[in-house]
Amino acid sequence: MADSNGTAKTAESRARGIRATGRRRKGPTRRRRVLTITLCALVSVVLLGGAGLGYVYFKLNGNLKGVDINAALGQDRPKNVDNGSMDILVMGSDSRAGKNSEYGTDEGAARSDTAMVVHVYKGHKKASVVSIPRDTMIKRPSCTKDGKDVPGQQRAMFNTAFEVGGPACAVKTVESISGIRMDHFVEVDFTGFKKLIDALGGVEITTKKAINDNSSHLHLQAGKHTLNGEDSLGLVRTRHGVPGGDGSDLGRIQLQQTFIKALMNQVKNVGVLTNPTKLYDVADTATKAITTDTDLNSVSELSGLAKSLGSIGSDKIDMVTLPVAYDKVDPDRVEPLTKQSKQVWDALHQDRDIPKSAIKDSAGDKGGTDSYVR
After folding, report:
1. Residues 67/292, Cβ–Cβ less than 8 Å
2. How far apart are CA 174 and CA 83, in angstroms?
3. Mean local confidence (pLDDT), 229-236
4. Does the structural domain 27-358 have CATH classification 3.40.630.190?
5. pTM > 0.85
6. Would 93 disulfide with which of 30, 84, 110, 185, CB 3.0-4.6 Å?
7. Closest of 178, 165, 185, 87 to residue 138, by C-alpha
């Protein structure tokens, strides 16, 4: 480590968790983790049953917002490999504007909190999800926002790509580090996630031990729980109160991945397909919560995606974190493990399963939180 204070400061930094920005925190904040927010919306739209959305086509179609990623990026992208697989960048912003102001001060620009690359394999029977920690130090490419050029940066946090260049820059950054062209983009905000969980009637989870985190205002005894939207937000952002956790954002990502699978199972068992009123409420909430690329921002396109991917269950999804190590310059950041990260991206590019050897030495999948919540 480059830190002159040695291992003591490094351990302290890791215990605090990786910082979201370059500034020191003044105290605990009510940050809602958009990693879960984004995939939740994707899962809800994709798995609830595309055919049922059609009966309220025009109403739901008016809810959707789209960003023309293809026009923004032009030809400066990886080759589109037409092998039957699909890659979707799922992410969210940490904007504090509007109703999101209760989660912190609006500083005028949004960042991506955490992003996931969802790779759907040929045949659309299984998928792999790669979480990219928000504070991963990467080479950010040059981008354009509102007609203005944004210079690239040799060493930048991953989450700044969304901040300086919006969704198109986030997509371009992911494509530059992975070498994989993203077929689609989905984004959701804090308030949308909470409303979506409430519309679903909550999510059932089981904790093996009590969770007590004053920072996230979450207090759960060991046992079964049905979490509403607010408690779900507390769960997916907690990092101090989970037994076995390492107190970092890396451990929190692992917890979020466990929650996502619980949510997927819940979506298939809440009766929305046999209850038109509930189906409408969930579909209305989900379509209001998300922003997609323009190839997806219609009910007909989402319905097609739903029919294509609806058979993928949580047991057919492999979730990993991009192989990383704590940054040598700043222990509050992480950096990709070059060899292992290449293994991950090469596997997805070739439509193969991610090898276990790729994450063996990574700090990203050692949080220990997944064994306490299911």
Report:
1. yes
2. 20
3. 84
4. yes
5. no
6. 110
7. 178
